[in-house]
Amino acid sequence: MKRLIAPALAATAFLFAGCAPMFTQSPGQGLSPVNAVSDGDDAHLILFGHDVVSYFTDGRHAMGSAAHKSVYKGVTFRFASAEHKTLFDADPGKYVPQFGGYCANGIVYGIPWGGDADTWKIIDGKLYIFGGAGSRDAFLLDEKGNVALAQKYWKEEVEGSNAFWQRSKRLVFRVPHYKSGKELADAVARAKGGK
């Protein structure tokens, strides 16, 4: 009997450990799913607390402060200054990152995953976050085509879904145009003049 209890407890702990992001990233009030964490009183803190306004006003990423925050559609946004909070509150839609702050290149494949606040680009006045320089470079190989694909998969599959289940589905059932990380890295290297 003892042999069965330990594995059962381990499996239960593993299952519940995975539940926190399932709920944290799915506030269900219009901005779901989102690249969010729980931090103190902020159950759905986007981009680990980075200030989304700073990309537009300062041309860089910056950490926000719990002293300057707004809740928009169930998601908490932190800002580096009271001025940034005021700008956001006047027009939140201008500053909210595309695709819930997930890696835009992942959304091209229907996969809401990753998203590093320090790897980003503003395209046509919208903020796109990427999972790293390699993801950004791969996305920019066909910026227009990838924006269109990401918007398609966001609207048709990801928006309003549970990120965990959507990610799991698309890691098993790949989109027709799927490329592995290696294939994308090779394409980026070729575009930069490598072999």
Q: Can you give me a brief rundown of this structure?
A:
By secondary structure, this protein is an alpha+beta fold. The chain has nine helices and six strands, in the order H-E-E-H-E-E-H-H-H-E-E-H-H-H-H.
User: Which regions have little confidence, pLDDT < 50, spanning 5+ residues?
Assistant: 8-21
Number of strands: 6
Query: SS-based structural class?
Result: alpha+beta
Average pLDDT metric: 89
Biggest sheet, spatial arrangement of strands: 1-2
Query: Shape, please?
Result: globular
**Number of domains as seen in the coordinates:** 2
Strand content: 15-25%
Radius of gyration: 18 Å
How many helical elements?
9
The first-to-last residue Cα distance is 59 Å
Largest sheet: 2 strands, antiparallel
Percent of residues in helices comes to: 40-55%
Order of helices and strands: HEEHEEHHHEEHHHH
